[in-house]
Design a protein that fits this description.
The complex is a heterodimer of chains A (491) and B (118). By secondary structure, chain A is mainly alpha-helical. Chain A has helices at 6-23, 27-55, 77-104, 110-129, 133-151, 158-188, 193-199, 207-224, 232-239, 242-267, 270-276, 279-300, 304-324, 328-359, 370-373, 375-389, 395-409, 413-439, 452-470, 473-487, and strands spanning 58-61, 72-75. Classes of the chains: A mainly alpha (491), B mainly alpha (118).
Chain lengths: 491, 118
């Protein structure tokens, strides 16, 4: 009975838990509800992935209305993997949030904080599961509105302005998407993804469809923070509470990337995106610029959270590069990096959050001597940082490797050079923090290690970075299936 | 000219959209940006509503003597989008209130200047 409703349960569960978390008195109960919900969601996401791996594809007609008239939820290996990442990140970050949020967020806001967190989770999961493009827009707005709220809860008053700007940019992006969906509906009369995929080829030479494509790609580009539409991201990630930075960095841009891939390869089809329209010539230069500019700007930052945020812009560049290569190998590499980067960035932002929790240090020079004062936190930072650089035995190496292979297969030597340069630049900005933390004497002797409730999730992430770096067969296998699926037959 | 008249709804939408977009992008008063955002979104609502009209179509309520109806689905979609827009506006205005309390200003340049000094 429950098994057939798995897909919709994954979305309804956090949606139902959010008002409960809001109404409960005191932050701790809300936290408990949120955490248990996220664990249940993780269980559901794993169950869905296992079923999809066995059955290939699951479909669920919402309210019993048959697609394409009703809203359909449709899951293949690609979105099952993305849903798993989102649920897993929430499940790992919420335990961490208990201590972190107590210091970051005013006590009377705790229950609304966890309610917003659950709504963000609901929205992100909904985006990954739905096969209805308008439904996707609604979920995108649910997740975005709750993320604006979460970002605004940061310690500094600058968080308010960061949240406002994020809201303005995010709303423009979502409205662009809405225009694109409207044009598609006007041309095809359907909102269902597989149905759209069937009908678009008939009208693919009309200017309206080309315009729809442009609006959708630009709108998603804003949400994805692809260079040069990334301006909102550094402020938002730098000012948000630690748990929110970790969660959004690990999920929000990843889900936007998923949506972009879905539109490019499933709805419009690779032939249209890369054959009829010159998307490759647009995506690849932007991706390269994103990798280089993002990495260089990361090196120039003095605030460590801003540094990691700019690094995210660069990493988004890698993923867009994978999609822009327009091959099954490229899509698999992008999917793999989507999974792996979520692990790295969550770990890095969590480590930084531990330091902020202990001594409020956000500038890199304040990290002097922390290598000895907070050995576990900084060791976690170093390992996750090595993963970001792409050192063997970490997940960073695996996804960089597959990106290399995909680029070399097309003999795109310039892209290979950019990949190498990006890794070297990452080594510079991560190395700078390591140098300050381990080789400079710190002034403050009172700083202690972070509490175990924060260290445990952090190390869980760090160990995941190493585990999936060594036993890569599971993730690589899924990514390859997803790549073949998107490149080949579609949904 | 006939092309312009036949597609006047699109021209209106584009005009509204650009007005809103310009207001949002011009850095200045935060409330002005929220209003711009609203106009921007409203243009899309008008777009959806206008494409749902069918030539000679009646109001989409089942009646015995009518054959052609306007398409009701875009109206429903836009009802949802309007709700989303209201929520966005409410959140944006709430943020502006908090910004006003924290900075005693809603001019973006002024706020940035205050933060740059620290």
């Amino acid at each position: 009975m429950i098994a057939e409703h798995l897909l919709v349960l994954l979305v309804v569960l956090p949606l139902m838990a959010a008002p409960i978390a809001f109404l409960l008195p005191g932050g701790r109960w809300s936290w408990l509800v949120a955490t248990l919900t996220s664990w249940a969601a993780l269980g559901l996401a794993i169950a869905i992935l296992l079923r999809v791996m066995a059955a290939g594809e699951l479909s669920y007609a919402l309210g019993g209305w048959a697609p394409p008239w009703g809203i359909e939820y449709r899951v293949d290996v690609f979105n099952a993997l993305v849903a798993l990442i989102v649920a897993a990140m929430a499940a790992a970050i919420l335990p961490y949030a208990l201590a972190s949020v107590e210091r970051d967020v005013a006590a009377h806001n705790h229950n609304s904080f966890y309610a917003a967190f659950l709504l963000a989770l609901c929205g992100l999961l909904g985006i990954t599961l739905t096969a209805d493009v308008f439904n996707l827009f609604v979920f995108l707005e649910i997740s975005s509105l709750s993320s604006y709220l979460l970002v605004s809860q940061g310690r500094d008053r600058a968080a308010l302005l960061a949240a406002f700007r994020y809201l303005v940019m995010g709303t423009i992006g979502a409205t662009f998407l809405l225009v694109g969906i409207g044009l598609l509906y006007a041309m095809t009369g359907t909102l269902n993804m597989p149905d759209l995929a069937q009908r678009i080829p008939e009208v693919q030479n009309s200017r309206a469809v080309h315009t729809a494509f442009a609006f959708i790609v630009v709108g998603l580009g804003i949400k994805l923070a692809v260079f040069p539409l990334h301006q909102w991201l550094p402020d938002a990630y730098a000012q948000a509470p630690a748990a929110v930075s970790a969660f959004l960095a690990a999920t929000a841009t990843k889900v936007a990337l998923y949506v972009l891939a879905r539109f490019l390869f499933t709805v419009f089809g690779a032939e249209f995106s890369f054959g009829v329209l010159p998307l490759k010539q647009i995506l690849l230069p932007l991706a390269v610029a994103g990798v280089l500019v993002g990495s260089v700007l990361a090196i120039l930052q003095t605030d460590i959270k801003r540094m990691l945020a700019y690094s995210s812009v660069a990493q988004v560049g890698y993923m867009v590069l994978g999609l822009g290569l327009a091959s099954a190998a490229g899509i698999s590499a992008a999917t793999l990096h989507l999974f792996n980067h979520a692990l790295m960035k969550a770990a890095l932002f969590m480590a930084v959050g531990c330091v902020v929790w202990q001594c409020g240090a956000t500038r890199i020079e304040q990290y002097a001597g922390l290598g000895r004062r907070m050995p576990w936190t900084m060791a976690g930072f170093v390992l996750a940082g090595l993963s970001l650089v792409g050192v063997p035995l970490t997940v960073g190496f695996i996804s960089k490797w597959y990106l290399f292979v995909a680029a070399i297969a097309q003999q795109a030597w310039l892209l290979v050079a950019v990949l190498v340069a990006g890794s070297l630049l990452a080594l510079v900005y991560i190395g700078r923090v390591v140098e300050v933390a381990y080789f400079r004497a710190g002034a403050d002797d009172r700083v202690q290690e972070a509490p175990w409730t924060m260290l445990l999730p952090l190390w869980l992430m760090v160990l995941a970075n190493i585990y999936f770096g060594i036993h890569a067969r599971f993730t690589v296998g899924l990514a390859e299936r997803a790549g073949a699926l998107l490149w080949g037959t579609g949904l | 000219m006939s092309l312009v008249i036949a597609h006047y709804n699109y021209l209106l939408v584009i005009f509204l959209m650009m007005c809103g977009f310009y207001m949002v992008l011009g850095r200045g008063n935060l409330v002005r940006q929220v209003i711009g955002l609203n106009i921007f979104q409203t243009s899309v609502f008008v777009f959806y509503i206008s494409i749902s009209y069918v030539d000679g179509g009646a109001v989409p309520i089942a009646m015995s003597d009518v054959e052609v109806y306007a398409n009701p689905l875009p109206h429903v979609l836009i009802l949802t989008a309007i709700v989303v827009g209201v929520a966005t506006t409410a959140l944006a205005l709430a943020l502006v209130v908090r910004i006003k309390a924290a900075y005693d200003s809603i001019e973006e340049d002024d706020i940035l200047e205050q933060d740059a000094g620290r």
